[in-house]
Automatic annotation (TrEMBL):
Protein name as it appears in the record: Transposase
Matching Gene3D superfamilies: Ribonuclease H-like superfamily/Ribonuclease H
Subcellular compartments: Nucleus
SUPFAM superfamilies linked to this entry: Homeodomain-like (SSF46689)
Leader peptide range in chain numbering: none
Pfam families: HTH_29
InterPro entries in the cross-refs: Homeodomain-like_sf, RNaseH_sf
Length: 254
């Protein structure tokens, strides 16, 4: 977030000793990218005006600043009067530079569907792209959701039916609704070709170590029905095989 945006979103003006105090320290950062250093400046500016750490935390609560950050910043300032980052030990980052992070962020903003592997190939960053996306930008890959294709007629129809449902079950009539579902259980072993693997040196060794998954025609099965409503769960209903069950039978036997 650019500093100017954050400055506008949070009116950084307080009343101290019956005077309006402006934090001039911020003006040198108005054209820069907002970082932890600017957060430290905000904490120290309030600290120098006499605010207690708990008060500073309350004022800056919308900035996702933690209590630990406030106390450590004040302690560091009292020790060496600095808000800059401490010199770090070890080799400095040579690939995940601010310029690279900014470039990756810009590409993702232009096309959120961009593939991580292709992005790494284009920028020559290898696995660094994953760390930039996850650690520096705080992004995670999510699956695209599916939904019905709705035109104007279907949207109008849904609106009418939703209003009809709200009218039908207004008040406490929603307590009369019951949700039910059935599940068929078979006696055969659950098997997934993609996930059920056997580690071995050969196919013959795998067959000898783990028995084959046996499959037969028309295995024994059992259908179970259960309902839930505002008042709780129904009793479990075991459906007999080859017997047709309708809503009336469900209601009678439940």
């Amino acid at each position: 977030m650019v500093a100017t945006k954050k400055f506008i979103e949070f009116e950084f003006r307080i009343v101290h000793e019956n005077k309006t105090v402006y934090f001039l320290e911020f003006y040198s950062f108005l054209n820069m990218e907002w970082t932890l250093k600017e957060d430290r400046v905000a904490v120290i500016a309030l600290h120098r005006c006499g605010y207690a750490p708990i008060q500073i935390l309350d004022i800056l609560k919308n900035w996702n600043i933690t209590k630990r950050f406030v106390y450590r910043t004040i302690k560091r300032y009292n020790e060496d009067s600095s808000v800059d980052d401490k010199s770090r030990s070890g080799r400095p980052q040579s690939v995940r530079t601010p310029a690279v992070i900014k470039a990756v962020k810009a590409r993702i903003l232009r096309n959120p569907k961009r593939k991580q592997k292709l992005l790494a190939l284009q920028m020559g960053l290898s696995t660094t792209v994953k760390r930039v996306l996850n650690e520096d930008l705080g992004l995670r890959a999510y699956r695209r959701k599916t939904g019905h294709r709705l035109n104007a007629r279907l949207m109008d129809l849904r609106l009418k039916r939703c209003r009809a449902l709200l009218k039908r079950y207004a008040g406490k009539k929603y307590r009369e609704i019951i949700f039910s579902d059935e599940k068929i259980f078979t006696v055969e072993e659950s098997y997934n070709k993609q996930n059920d693997k056997v580690y071995a040196h050969s196919s013959e060794e795998a067959s000898n170590r783990i028995p084959h998954v046996q499959r037969g025609h028309f295995p024994s099965s059992l259908m179970v029905w259960l309902g839930v409503s505002y008042w709780g769960l129904t009793e479990v209903h075991f459906c007999e095989k080859s017997v047709k069950t309708n809503a009336f039978v469900y209601q009678i036997q439940s």
